[in-house]
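hey so u asked for the seq, here:
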Amino acid sequence: MKSLFKSKPKTPADLVRQTRDLLIYVDRNSDTRESKREEKMAELSKLIRELKSILYGNSEAEPVSEACAQLTQEFFREDTLRRLIMCLPKLNLEARKDATQVVANLQRQQVQSRLIACDYLEANIDLMDILVSGYENTDMALHYGAMLRECIRHQSVARYVLESEHMKKFFDYIQLPNFDIAADAAATFKELLTRHKSTVAEFLSKNYDWFFAEYNSKLLESSNYITRRQAVKLLGDILLDRSNSAVMTRYVSSRDNLRILMNLLRESSKTIQIEAFHVFKLFAANQHKPADIVSILVANRSKLLRLFADFKTDKEDEQFEADKAQVVREIAGLAPKDHP
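ran it, C-alpha cells below
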C-alpha cells in the first residue's frame, strides 16, 4: 500500500520554483532564528546542487536536453537569476561554486533555438554592474568573475560592459594585490577585448585616446612583471587582428607607443621581449611611417640591429625568424625623413 502514496518526482520547473521561493525567503528573513535559517540554507544548497546535476549530468547519467530546456525556461521566466546573484554572498562556498556553474551553463542553453539567457540579460542589464563590481569583494570576486565571463559570450552584453564606466575599473582590478583576483580580472578583460570582433573594433575606435593612455601607463609600464607580460601579449593579439587594422595603424604612428615598446624589447625577460617584438614589427613594417618614428628608429638603428642579431626563441620558429629578418631589412634600409 505504501507505494501508492509515493510523492511524484519533482520536475525541473518545480526545482527552479522551489529554489526561487527559498531565495526569496533567505533574502527577506535575515532575523529568523538560527536553526530554522540553517535548515533553509541547507535545503537551498541541495536544490542548487540538483539544478547543477540536471544541467551537467552526473556519474550515472548524461544531461537530458528536454529537462535542461524546462529548467532554463522556468529559470528565466521570473527573476531567479537576479535573486541567485543577489543572494550569492549568503551561500556557503560549495553552494556558491554550484550556483556559479549553474549560471555559466544557462548562458549556453537553447530553448526552441533561442539563447533565452541573452534576452533576459538584455532586459536586466544592470546585473552586469553587480558582477563587475564583484571584483571589489574578495569573497565574491572569483564567483562573480566566472559568471561575468559567461554572460559576455552574448555580444549585446559585452557591448554594454565595454561602453560602460566599468571598463576603466579593469585597469585597477588587474593590479589588485590578490593574485587570483587580478588574474581573473585579466581573463575577463581579455575576453571583452577579443571575443566579439566588430564590437571591439568599434569600442577601440571610439575610445582610442583614453583607452590606450590607460593601457600604456597602467599596464605596459606597470612595475609588476606579470601585468606587463600579459598586457604586451594582449596588445599583440588586439593589433594583429584584422578587424582592428585602423586602430593598429593609429597605434604604430605614435612615437610614445614606440618608445614604450622599445623599452619592453630591452627587458631581461625573454617572454616579454618576444611578445614586444610581435608589436614592434608592426612599427617597422608600416609603409607610411611618420617622420618622428623614422628618426627614432634611425637614431637607435645600431642598438636595435645588435639586439636582433642575438634574438632567438627557445624553440625553432621559422615564422619568427622570417619576421625578424624582415624587421632587420626595414631598419637597415631606413633613411631619415625631413620633418615637414
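The longest strand covers residues 110-111. The two ends are 99 Å apart (CA to CA).
lmk if thats what u needed
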